[in-house]
Specification:
single chain; 589 residues; mainly beta; Nuclear Transport Factor 2, Chain: A; Methylamine Dehydrogenase, Chain H; 7-stranded mixed sheet
Length: 589
């Protein structure tokens, strides 16, 4: 996002120089940034301060507009405030995001009181979490004013008021960053997304976010090795020649070597996102923390034992009628894609009446739901295994996770349900028991439409509706597991994309973004919407009749199946036909 803007500014600068016939020689030489400083925003807003004779409405209007100028600690905006203790204002306390100035209304409600109202599309809280707001959401704030030296000034700002920014100003000033926690079951880092201003002190804000602890929606799925009650020893993270020093004040320093490595990995991955930082020195009360296997200046996650695992190379599978055929992902869309299945294939024929297929991580097992959506069946190789009766109905499409756990959602007496089956525990002489229910009290009486587990296996995205199929909701929650990997419960969820009025299916396109098949209004064509774990959602290309979505690789290789029995793969901002088919299966990663 920001890289694109920088490139555009560079092009404009180059054109301006060439038009002037070369570099100017009369301008004074100006010093550059100190090493480790953050590059200022490339587009600067220079609003005017209050002018003599401004009305109360003009003063409040100017104050809100000046919130888009962050230079010198919002000095222009502060010039609209009266010199009074009651005018205390915390601009970074929260951000309300509105579309543009046409959605902003400012009126005087009585002498000395001005009310600002805005139609908001999102909000950023003090912790940096960006939440999209439902359509029609409105923010309101009443400001008190008095005359100072014959001029109106604001002497009372609502406690909840931080800044109100347009979408364009928010995009200019704020960027998403990742705060990393350790998986509860693997040597792996799991990101949580926060929005911060790209300004001086970013490394400090990132460190503080990490010190804030595990967010509720990841409770039980991740952990932090930061000692309980730890804080920054000197309320800042200094940067010297690309090295950030994170000095913690902690009463119970980490002693276990593996925990020290995990703590170092969390801090390194989080803080090095700040521009100009490529190494981290981790200290406790001024003493450098010795981390096994790592130098004093941390610069490598692999040296800390955090390696990126690669999934086995498993070809996708296209279903046509009762037949399945493996598809080379590099040849999807090729006319020869529907060649007959080679003899000796280990793929089964799936009888009519079984639908909503899923492919396991190894590609050796396939699951499906019966046409009446009451039964769950699996095929290993060409052999159909025992059909499982599920204590419920309206079963969703099943899905496997990275641990070969089979998930399926549905509805049962009392409300929505999610069941799991540990397929890796099955042997020839030890068939698995019935699917086990996962504790998800927040589902209430809702019906599960779709669920997908993230590639790391620690988060699940759930689309649900009310019993009548209305009021769609997208929730992401952490997965709590037994030692053998079997899920037992989902954490309190993070609810996303409230602006979508229809949601049919979802897929993880990376470790912090979902593609959700849906629409915002009834007159729109169904399309993928890219939904980050915090931040505004964006639209992909529309496709009439789209009912299911998956991906071969990221958001650029989305695959959609339509209700007309056609499979399409994304091609830029349009779609390319894969061919006839009622399903396209991609292995769990």
């Amino acid at each position: 996002m920001r890289a694109g803007r920088l490139a555009a500014v560079a092009c404009v600068a180059a054109l301006a120089l060439s038009a002037c016939g070369g570099l100017a020689t009369s301008s004074p030489v100006r010093p550059g940034l100190e090493v480790g400083d953050v590059q200022a925003n490339e587009v600067r807003v220079l609003p005017a301060g209050p002018s003599d004779g401004s009305s109360p409405v003009d003063v409040v209007t100017g104050f809100i507009r000046a919130g888009a100028a962050t230079d010198d600690d919002y000095q222009v905006a502060r010039s609209y405030l009266a010199p009074s203790p009651e005018s205390t204002w915390r601009p970074d306390g929260s951000v309300m995001v509105f579309t543009d100035e046409s959605s902003l209304t400012i009126t005087q409600v009585r002498p000395g009181v001005v009310r600002a109202t805005a139609k908001v599309t999102g909000a950023i809280d003090a912790s940096g979490r960006y939440a999209e707001r439902a359509p029609g959401s409105v923010a309101q704030a009443d400001f008190g004013l008095r005359q100072v030296g014959g001029q109106w000034r604001i002497d009372r700002v609502p406690d909840s008021f931080g800044t109100w920014l347009s979408e364009s100003d928010t995009d200019r000033l704020y960027d998403p960053f990742r705060v990393y926690f350790e998986s509860a079951t693997a040597r792996q880092l799991i990101p949580d997304i926060r929005y911060f201003r790209l300004a001086s002190g970013l490394a400090t804000r990132l460190a503080r976010a990490l010190l804030g602890g595990v967010p509720a929606y990841l409770a039980g799925a991740v952990r932090t090795e930061l000692p309980s009650g730890a804080r920054l020893a000197v309320d800042a993270v200094p940067i010297d020649s690309g090295t950030a020093t994170v000095d913690l004040a902690a009463t119970n320093p980490v002693a276990d070597p593996a925990q020290r490595q995990a703590l170092a990995a969390q801090v390194l991955a989080t803080v090095t996102q700040a521009p100009g930082v490529d190494k981290v020195v981790l200290q406790v009360d001024g003493t450098t923390l010795q981390v096994p296997g790592a130098p004093t200046s941390l610069d490598s996650l692999s040296a800390l034992g955090f390696l990126t695992e690669t999934a086995p190379a498993v070809k996708p599978v296209l279903r046509t009628g009762t037949s399945l055929v493996r598809v080379d992902p590099e040849q999807v869309g090729d006319p020869a894609r529907n060649a007959p299945r080679p003899s000796g294939s280990n793929l089964p024929d799936i009888p009519e009446g079984w639908a909503y297929l899923a492919l396991s991580r190894t590609g050796q097992e396939i699951a499906a739901v019966s046409g009446d959506r009451r039964q769950l069946s699996r095929w290993r190789g060409t052999t159909q295994l025992t059909v499982s009766e599920v204590d419920g109905d309206h079963l969703s499409s099943p899905t496997y996770d990275v641990r070969d756990i089979l998930w399926v959602g549905g509805h049962a007496p009392g409300g929505g349900r999610i069941w799991v089956l540990n397929t890796s525990a099955q042997t020839a002489d030890r068939p698995p028991g019935p699917p086990a229910a996962v504790s998800v009290p927040w589902l209430g009486d809702r019906m599960v439409v779709s669920l997908r587990v993230s590639d790391d296996g620690q988060r699940v995205a759930v689309i649900s509706t009310n019993p009548s199929g209305q009021d769609p909701r997208l929730d992401v929650a952490g997965v709590r597991r037994q030692p053998d990997g079997t899920p037992t419960a989902l954490s309190t969820p993070l609810t996303l994309a409230p602006s979508l009025t229809l949601m049919r299916d979802a897929v993880w396109v990376d470790d912090s973004t979902l593609a959700v098949l849906g629409r915002k209004s009834a007159n729109q064509v169904v399309r993928p919407w890219f939904v980050p774990l915090g931040g505004p959602i964006t639209a992909g290309p529309g496709l009439a009749g789209a009912v299911a979505i998956t991906t071969v690789s990221g958001e650029r290789q989305l695959v959609v199946t339509t209700d007309a029995g056609e499979v399409w793969i994304r091609a830029g901002n349009s779609w390319q036909s894969v061919g006839k088919g009622t399903g396209f299966l991609v292995a769990a990663r």
